[in-house]
Amino acid sequence: MPAKKDKSYCDWMSQLPPELHDIPFFKLAIPGSHDSMSYDLDINSSIIEPDRLKRLSRIYCARKIVRKWAVTQDETITKQLDAGVRYFDLRIARKAHDPDPTRLYFHHGLYTRTDVETVLKDVNDWAGGHPKEILVLALSHFHGFDKNVAEQLHRHLTSFIVTLFGAKLIHKRDIPTLKSCWDKGRNVIVSYDSRQHFNELWSKIPYYYGNSMNTRDVESKLCQFLEKPSPAQSFFVCGLNLTLPENARILLYILRPCDNLVKVIRRSLPRLLRWVEQQAAKTPVNIVASDLVTRDGFVPTIIKLNTSKRVKP
């Protein structure tokens, strides 16, 4: 007997039951990716964070340690899309002394190898091949956008985004549903965490997270956020991700010789997924973001929330 194939979530939105097609997108449960480009971190780049290790950028061992504790995803953005992820946390950076004045990268501890425009073109191609899948791209942080170049860089990047995605962009004045997006042929939402003047771009989407490496603390803090009243017609992110401390306690983690962030995440994610299933029965969730989104049943767990009793018109 042939082995049973895993269910594909490449086009899961188009396969949702008809009664969910007119639900505001803010009320759907959407799998999201935290630090989406961290799989691409460049071991040869300078260290951006943590501050305590910046001065050690020239030392390969220091960069290796940073990368070991900064990688939160292990699949490309296209494979994350194929796996069913629909929200992407994209942290933008400009390299100092780059000869190209408008070339940008992503970052998390280190810079990525691949530039922003190349990745966004890949996302645009994927969106074109899956017109019924709605994507949310959240651009933030903008490291290295110094005052003398910030306006030029923001203008270049936002113009590139609007030109690239064009008619696919869902405007911020809309209250999107699956059906309304399908009818208009639009399937990309871009959230831009900085001042901009394009009607096609959305403002910052709140991202709630536990700011801890302890799963119980993460659960407790997320409960506090989720149980507060929130605007009825807006996106929000519930981040299941673990966060390294910013003080000297970070050394307790990054100096472990036989451990890394991926291993810690794999130990904690099953518990966090059980928690989000229980929590979603009590309070609404919208975008749920995580590390290692292609592993341990993360995507199917979040998608399944859409067919539970919590989703109401």
UniProtKB/TrEMBL annotation:
One of its GO terms (biological process) is lipid metabolic process. Residues 19-192 form the Phosphatidylinositol-specific phospholipase C X domain. Pfam families: PI-PLC_X. GO terms for molecular function: phosphoric diester hydrolase activity. Gene3D superfamilies: Phosphatidylinositol (PI) phosphodiesterase. InterPro entries: PI-PLC_domain (IPR051057), PLC-like_Pdiesterase_TIM-brl (IPR017946), PLipase_C_PInositol-sp_X_dom (IPR000909). PANTHER family: PI-PLC X DOMAIN-CONTAINING PROTEIN 1, PTHR13593. This is Phosphatidylinositol-specific phospholipase C X domain-containing protein. It comes from Gasterosteus aculeatus aculeatus.
